[in-house]
Predict the structure of Ribosome maturation factor RimP.
Amino acid sequence: MSKRTEQLTELLAPVVEDLGFVLWGVEYIQGRGAVLRVFIDHADGISVDDCAAVSHEVSGVLDVEDPIPGEFNLEVSSPGMDRPMFDITQYVDYIGEDVQLKLLAPVSGKRKMTAAIVAVDGDTLVVELDGETLRVPYSQVDRARLQPRFN
């Protein structure tokens, strides 16, 4: 997680939580047409009205604090079924599910894989790929997204 993303998460988490939601994660994409994506979650799901309420409050905080120079688009949404993963603690609730990983350095010769989440062991993600158990240091995870199964 970049320093800016960490700062935005720290700034926005209390706002989102005060509205009764969980801040699932924050993505900031720089450049022309910059985008700040705020993912919110709730045990009862997320509605369009929920996103609008959070967007309104987050916009106010961003206007006052001004943590991002220049113009950007704010997007507030549910993380969805194929949710991006932002923190190692989020994996615990999805043990047994598949996750698509993009790694900074190869593990067992692979930088990209879809594997089943077996466990979280401190700062290590334990996954199973083709019958082999792999220990992936979380510091090596560049991107991760749940891969829902449809039976």
DSSP finds two helices and eight strands in the chain. The chain has a mean pLDDT of 95. The longest helix spans residues 48-65. The radius of gyration is 17 Å.
